[in-house]
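Consider the following assembly input.
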Amino acid sequence: DTAVSQTPKYLVTQMGNDKSIKCEQNLGHDTMYWYKQDSKKFLKIMFSYNNKELIINETVPNRFSPKSPDKAHLNLHINSLELGDSAVYFCASSRSGENSPLHFGNGTRLTVT
Amino acid sequence: AQRVTQPEKLLSVFKGAPVELKCNYSYSGSPELFWYVQYSRQRLQLLLRHISRESIKGFTADLNKGETSFHLKKPFAQEEDSAMYYCALSSSGGYQKVTFGTGTKLQVIP
């Protein structure tokens, strides 16, 4: 009955590879997000989608491409991985409208070697 | 632009001592403030929000618009409170954008 689930939990890959992280929520929310948590535990928003439409794109390199096939899913594809991409990536969802709390997934720990 | 500042990266207190995790914000509109907590190896989860005016796990936070602060307090720290705490601000009007502070690691010493 997991509310927001991400796969995989761990991802280890080499520089230059392309990888995807998947996220699904069963809360009936129509807004989904990707956040990046770096090694210093800073949490920064990357993207936000509302009803499959991109509404926030926070100066993220073009190598990162989110895709939302429906409002319950928001996947993150990363091309040409770099060492600096190593981080924990969190998916989250919320109801649309103001001030709805975010519900987070467990995170995907990406390590680029 | 909206900004959230948590000045302490690490806060260590003894069990039973009072806790105050500081949070200051900068936002031109009417803010909605939250505290999220991340226990070791767990997902981030909502701890409390200012609009609810509730106490969760003994924690409370009061929005002070004059000082633009939303400090998190607990009178007596417990070992299980050890975690990473994030203050967050949600923008008003239109689509929600949630900005997080840099986080404060609370370490409760037995």
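Chain A touches chain B at residues 4, 31, 33, 35, 40-45, 48, 50, 55-56, 90, 92, 94, 96-107 (CB under 8 Å). Ask yourself how this observation constrains the way the partners meet.
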